[in-house]
């Protein structure tokens, strides 16, 4: 296996296609929009989120768990039968209180499913950047591997710049290096991924989705993945952080 637990090593960026066999600390990054949407779902009161690879898995989960919420996308679009698209704005406004959510996306949840060898596994975006850095440091397992889910290695036009910027920002916080939240927010909001996402249309992307996704440190919780009898469960894990605002 590819190890990432050496405490003197530096953090690495890898694609979803390269994460298989990677152990140690793994942080799966999807800022536009999967793990921004997940964070806003937790902020709206969701109790847990299950992450799956396919639309069929999400719909089967929804049928098997009465009252659960299916959210996400396929190729950016809300699949038939899903309650919500992959939208931070719509997740924040939905009745999530105490409910179980199942999420499927084309990038973010794929990275989580692929990272099956991770010793500890987090999902991250800008809205929980400082809390993620705090959680990773508290694990005391060395430098993390960041999965840049927007990086499509067979597509030079899709380097995952928005996710790279987010990973770099989290890592700077982890190392107590200088950061500029306004700059990272502006760069992510002006990325190609943001432009492509907004072009999906209002049925699949709220016009304010990018604005919410770049609200740096909106939340003071990290989001950690564990496995239980129902699958890959994402939980909100509150963290002390001077940078987080609520």
Report on this model:
- Helices cover 32% and strands 19% of the residues.
- The chain is an alpha/beta fold and 246 residues long.
- It has one domain (12-236): ComB-like (putative 2-phosphosulfolactate phosphatase, Alpha-Beta Complex), CATH 3.90.1560.10.
- Strands 1-7-2-6-8-9-3-5-4 form a 9-stranded mixed β-sheet, with helices on both faces.
- Strand 8 and strand 9 (231-238) form a beta hairpin.
- It is globular.
- Residues 1-8 have low confidence and may be disordered.
Which characteristics define this entry?
disordered N terminus, 9 strands, single chain, putative 2-phosphosulfolactate phosphatase, 246 residues, alpha/beta, 9-stranded mixed β-sheet, 9 helices
Helix-strand blueprint:
Blueprint: E1 12-14, E2 25-29, H1 34-43, E3 48-52, H2 55-64, E4 69-72, H3 88-93, E5 100-104, H4 108-114, E6 120-124, H5 129-139, E7 145-148, H6 161-174, H7 181-189, H8 192-198, H9 209-213, E8 221-228, E9 231-238
Parallel strand pairs: 1-7, 2-6, 2-7, 3-5, 4-5
Antiparallel strand pairs: 3-9, 6-8, 8-9
Shape, per Cα inertia axes: globular
At the fourth CATH level, what is the homologous superfamily?
A: ComB-like
**What structural class should be given to the helix and strand makeup?**
alpha/beta
Topology-level CATH name: putative 2-phosphosulfolactate phosphatase
Largest sheet: 9 strands, mixed
Largest sheet: spatial strand order: 1-7-2-6-8-9-3-5-4
Q: How many distinct folded domains?
A: 1
Could you give the order of the helices and strands? EEHEHEHEHEHEHHHHEE
